[in-house]
Amino acid sequence: MAVPTRIESAEAEAEDIQHSDSGPAALERPGDPPASENWPTGVLLLRTGLWTTVILCVTAALVHVFLVFLHVAPANTVSKRFSPQINAWVFPFFEQNWRLFAPEPESVNRQILVRTARTGPGGSSRASGWFDLTAVDHAAVEHNPFPSHTAQNLLRRAWSSYVDSHGGDDKARTERAQMMQQYLANIAAERVAAHGGGSFDFVQLRVITRPVPASGSAAGSSSPKPAENRLLPWWKVPTHGK
């Protein structure tokens, strides 16, 4: 008569073990992560902000690569249709060219100077003396083992892009020409303001181009070319100084 009792007790113990493995006790194991609905609000906001930032960065990177690809690719229907949007994104900071693979040494030395003017209450204006922007860049590069890209190329590339978009005169006939004119004027104004140029609301640039003399026997067979002095018109800029 004792055998059935033992069998019933063994079955009851098996049911208890099965219930403990699959029931609420299994949810309280220390190795399991907490449920998302129990996370603090700050943690949920942080996760949402992180994922939003990642998605925005990936989207911006894809858009950038796509627009630069359209800029360097041969002209096609898409690049022609969205040319203003592509140029607005690429120029002047993401411009692409082949000079890295086929560099062209400079054949001239350019000296870029700027002067400022401020209009007085009575309508009179007074111009300052010439300030040598190129000399400031050369001083920042000389004896510097790690010169910045700004000191080496910003002013030079701005002037090259200005010449490419304007040609021999200073009339902005295209949207890109207007943008490069404003870009060059802003660079000059910010450089002058950073060196304590006083208050002004107009800038004027003067560019002196001197050909690099040929070396060797070619130098004596040709007469040196005269320097070119190009004076640009006055440009209105945001008021600097007080």
Put the structure in a nutshell.
With 242 residues, this protein is an alpha+beta fold. 49% of the residues lie in helices and 16% in strands. About 4% of the residues have low confidence.
Structure description:
The chain is of the alpha+beta class and 242 residues long. The chain is 49% helix and 16% strand. It has 8 helices and 6 strands; from the N terminus they run H-H-H-H-E-E-E-H-H-H-E-H-E-E. It has helices spanning 2-22, 41-72, 77-81, 83-90, 133-141, 149-166, 175-194, 217-221, and strands spanning 108-119, 125-127, 131-132, 200-211, 228-231, 235-240. Strands 1, 2, 3, 4, 5 and 6 form a 6-stranded antiparallel beta sheet that branches. The radius of gyration is 35 Å and the shape is extended.
Keywords:
6-stranded antiparallel beta sheet, 6 strands, alpha+beta, 242 residues, extended
Topology (elements, then pairings):
Blueprint: H1 2-22, H2 41-72, H3 77-81, H4 83-90, E1 108-119, E2 125-127, E3 131-132, H5 133-141, H6 149-166, H7 175-194, E4 200-211, H8 217-221, E5 228-231, E6 235-240
Antiparallel strand pairs: 1-2, 1-3, 1-4, 4-5, 4-6
Helix pairs in contact: 2-4, 5-6, 6-7
